[in-house]
Amino acid sequence: MSDMPALAAIRRRAVLAAPLGLALLPSGARAQGAWPTRAVTIVEGYPPGGVTDITSRVVAERMARELGQPAVVDNRPGAATSVAAASVTRARNDGYTLLMGTTTLAINQTLQPNLPPREPGRELDPIGMVFRTSFILHVHPSVPARTVPELIAHARANPGKVIFGSPGVGSVSHLCLELFKATAGIEIEHVPYRGGAPAALDLAAGRVHAIFQGVQEALPFLRSGQTRGIGVSLRTRNPDFPDLAPVADALPAFGEVTFWQGLFAPAGTPQAIIDRAGAALRAATEDQALRARMREQGVELVTGDAATLRALLAAETERWGNLIRSANIRVE
To answer: Which residues are CB-neighbours of 19 under 8 A, at least 6 positions away?
Structure first.
């Protein structure tokens, strides 16, 4: 997590709201229809204070203004977010328990198939997109590479000697580097950590040479000069980092890698509820002030309807499933 002032301000607001777990409502809450008539619980699979949690809270706050009822963010971390996801699949499909699901829904089906839900596409009904964030490929300053092609050439000249860190086996960051390795045809060493912070600290110390890391986590190290950015995981240049070329410029087969979050309901939720929740979510993700606030943290709020989210989940499940199988990635 970044310690940037803007993120700290958002965190303070989230903490102030946390004791009640309620998104604050304006005095003139809008008239409501048949749903909701009481608070809606939004289950989050990560601990309080992280980017996913903070984004969930600010989006829930904005949705509550549209729905005319509180939105309660319920943190249920554990088992690669499956604790949260499984609790929602078991909930009543009346619209009062929703899930902030992430890329892990697509990854876990192949990486950890025994974790519920085993078929998220069948057990959950998509409502809409929430956000996505990209990854920056950054290296320790001792690495003699300032571009992606130079890093690939360096790795080819030193097979097995370039060490990549990651927040853990099966994380999107890890899958990103495995995709990089496969498309570049290089041999590298992977060192998994228990989270992004220790991985970044070891990168800054030179114990590992490179990491694909979320923008918000990489920023402090890039700004301090402890690490050097050489590429981004988007297909196009990130306007906040115009000097960093997309990895796909050098490796077209790499494509684009993002960490995403979307809102889901238990399967069988009435369409009228899906539509109303989707409209409230769209109002949040299209709020320009909120979008600007979150973009400062490297988080891009995105608008996408239920069909968009369903298609993304299916495509990501196939993509990461194929990579996990071909690279023989396993959680020990």
So the answer is: none
